[in-house]
Amino acid sequence: MPAAGSPFTGTSLARSEDFAFLTGQARYIADLGATDDPRLAGAAYAVFVRSTMAHARVKDVTTTDAENAPGVLKVYTAANHGVAQPGPTYGIPVAALFAQPLLAEAKVRYVGEPIAVVVAATHQQAVDAAEEVIVNLEPLDPVLDLEDSLRGQTPLFVAGDAPVFQNHVGDHAADEAPSGNVASTAELHVGAPSPAAQVSVAQRITNPRQSPAPIEPRGLAAFWDCGHLYVWAATQRPHGFRAQLAEFYQLPTDNIHVIAPAVGGGFGGKVSRSVEEQLIPALARDLGRAVRWVDTRSEYLASATQGRGELFDFTLTGNADGEISSIAVKMIKDLGAYPGVGTYLAGGYTLPMACGVYNIDHVDFECHAVLTNRATIGAFRGAGRSPYLAALERMVDIYAAKIGRDPADVRRRNLITADMMPFTTIAGATYDEADYLADLNLALEIADYQNLRLEQAARRSGEQPLQLGIGIGSYCHKTTGGGGEEAHVRITAEGKAVVTTGTTSQGHGHVTTWAQIASDVLGIAPHDISIVEGNTDAIASGVGAVGSRSLQTAGLAVHKASGAVVDRARNIAAQLLEAAVGDIVLDTATGNFHVVGTPARSVDWVAVATLAHDEDLAAEELSCGEFYDNDGRDTYPSGSVVAVVEVDVETGKAKLVRLISVDDAGVRVNPMIVDGQIHGGLAAGIAQVLGEEIVYDSNGNLLTSNFMDYAIGSIDQFPQFELHASVTASSHNELGFKAVGESGPMGAVPAVHNAIVDAVRHLGINHIDLPCTPQRIWEALEAQR
Amino acid sequence: MTLETAPASINLTVNGVTYPVVADTSRNLLSVIRTEVGLTGTKEGCDDCECGACMVLLDGQPVNSCSYLAAQAEGKAITTIEGLGDGDALHPLQAKMLEAGGVQCGFCTPGMIMSAHALLERTPDPTEEEIRIGLSGNLCRCTGYAKILQAVGEAAVELR
Q: Domains, chain A, ranges and CATH?
């Protein structure tokens, strides 16, 4: 079985996982039934009763009518769910006082917070019965403004609010006294202001909330058998979720089996840290049968974690020639009602990116993460980095305008250059090899920047209604966040390979990518390599698909484990060829082992595997597991995006007409898959600029509770993206891999945002907050007329 | 308030096969196809006619099955994603999606393909703009639509 076509790294193979998706055979959480696993036979359905108020005291919850409704098995509230909540959070150290109870107890703190849950034989019965639960709420003033929350005049949590933790374990900072509504603080003060600096620009910039909004919402099914918990979950983190459940249910991890079936997109929205996901197993245990829960879209938008939610007071200082010397940022991060993943984003992901792609000598950074009466903030594609980098890129344009310089020239002057790499910024991040300047210049060249500026000048002087705007977004960003992944490679008796990893795909194309990486080492064709992932019983450890980490961790582990299997196979080949093992080589182009220098006499994988699987001979087992530890060597994918927009100055409507993206994602295993990741990220970023925004009214009611009001981009809103692959191998790992999953929004948000402001700057407008809806642009224009 | 509904016997013809099912008259076509007929390729992404994941063809016309009563579909030819292609042989739309890389998480894919199928039936030689309009009722969060656009254009050429 020679691997014709090798090496496969760098080849756009069609995805081997796609047949099931294209034909409707892929099994997602809502599709699973007894034919998938007999444990799911007769699964009951859970439907949550949720708060209709942003902040209220729970007076009473009446479940009698619901309990008597047809098909209802049981109705649960805080009073009877019977779970001894072991700790305040799920792996996130925060004050115990801020913990979210599984079902609301004394108070509710966001619209959508679970108060009760109905379990019934059919989904429709559970939906109908949930309507019969009567919840009596006494409204309290909501805290929605970030500065109000920071001032802490209305603390959202007071003593006595917290659930009683009966089996508190772990290393939570549970007993630290919280200060008002602040759940975490991150600060960095390094360097000193330049005495030569003469120009400072200051701007308040907001980055509104977005929902990850995968097209498949959240979902989970659970079943217990003899103290063993089985969970099927639409999750990005099967092993991480298992660890949480182990702590929560006081079980050894070996007693918990988490399976991620096909998962319909994640984007940070399926990291499985919600109370709903923690609670469903308890209901299954209590009822002695499988219980399943799947969000509706409006439930998802109201109660799943959201992303973004930042307020920056940004000051950038430089000299009159365009040399930036100093950044000062006061940031408030909206955490929503309960501290979640958002709690550590500022310290873990924003602060290290304080300098962006620039060589800056002085940073004053301060962030307070505060609680508000909105849904909890978690991760969303580019979490912690995209909002900050977008604000920084906005500031570069504002500064360039102030000193009368071209924004491209200001960037060129301040970019960290290729000869400085790897480069450790004063914020402490070590950027790996890249040529930011070359990538920016290439993006500008593809855009035909100078001619665009000429056309813009012509339209301005002609006072045309459609004004042209050109925007740039240069980026690099921290990925991985440390850690590693494990991979196992096993050769079957037929000489094929099975690769198992702890990370798992929600559309990323791991199956094809891992097969390509393994093939290049094993010399076995990719279609003869099968991939197992999303199954905690299949491999001991795993982190999951978060932080653009899979390729640079699991990809390296697959490579390493494949190499280990080849080493074992060489021993067997040596026996077959009656040669010294030191002389045996594997020709990966043919998949044959031979003595070095004599390829004519060889054995293939089938021969080697046949011997290895012969029980009588008890030859070496062709199965190896390896862990790849990135040892803190995170990679920093980078690039530059140029956006061209037309803004109708009569209506305020902005239209994106071109988008050029030059991205350095390191060595690309499957360029087609990499392009697809960039496309999706660009779309999410563009949509955020043009209109995608989670909106709450002044009472904390969610106004964007469906896809009509919450406008993720549709196919008629994007131009043909103009991509260019810039490939600089990273020295942070031996294969030169970087990352790509979150790159899209990093450059797209500032590029499109800067382009829109650029289109109307000559009319006296310095800034428009996101999203740049027609109304908001029109209001900015009106203010100048 | 619980809707007053009644179980009804309905004959649904899905992908050329007639399925006699019993379902409440309030039930939507999506849930009956998924639960009673047992074909789960058609997905629910919003239950509100906004995402297109539940798109099926009724007598060749694209319909969001989440917002169409099952009882109304009696007597009509229903086509779902399972009705395209032939065993291991993919329909050209599916094949071009595979080649172009138009699939990522796959959840929107069945609905997207059904909408594209309906588009190419009525507009065999679509412009890029016509493809965009024809698929504007199908949301995808993964792909930015670039490769889907490419795939549908290439499928149109092959199918002509």
A: 18-24+481-629 (3.30.365.10), 32-142+144-176+216-264+270-303 (3.90.1170.50), 310-479+634-784 (3.30.365.10)
> Total domain count for chain B?
2
Classify residue B2: in a domain, yes or no: no
To the nearest whole Å, the CA of B108 is away from the closest chain A CA by 7
**Chain B hits for A684, Cβ within 8 Å:** 141
Under 8 Å CB pairs connecting chains A and B tally to 180
The mean per-residue pLDDT over the stretch A250-271 comes to: 97
A712·B84 Cβ contact <8 A: no
Query: Shortest CA distance to A276 belongs to which of A291, A288, A266?
Result: A291
Tell me, yes or no, whether B131 lies in a domain: yes
**pLDDT confidence tier of residue A273, bands split at 50, 70 and 90:** confident
Look at residue B79 and tell me if it is in a domain.
yes
Closest CA–CA distance from residue B3 to any residue of chain A (Å):
8
Instruction: With respect to residue B121, please indicate whether it lies within any of the assigned structural domains.
Output: yes
Spatial distance between the Cα atoms of B45 and B65, rounded to a whole number of angstroms = 11
Residues of B in contact with A507 (CB under 8 A): 103-106, 142
B148: CB partners within 8 A, 6+ apart = A715, B97, B100, B102, B112, B116, B135, B140
Selecting from B24, B40, B141 the residue whose C-beta is nearest the C-beta of A215 gives B141
C-beta of residue A50 within 8 angstroms of C-beta of residue A112: yes
Which amino acid, one-letter code, is at A212? P
Q: Give the confidence band of A619 by pLDDT, cuts at 50, 70, 90.
A: low
Residue B139, pLDDT > 60, answer yes
Q: For an interface test with A, give the residue of B109, B130, B142 to mutate (most A CBs within 10 A).
A: B142
Which residue segment(s) compose the domain that B118 sits in? 92-159
Its ipTM equals: 0.98
Angle between the B92-100 and B146-159 helix axes, to the nearest 10 degrees?
140
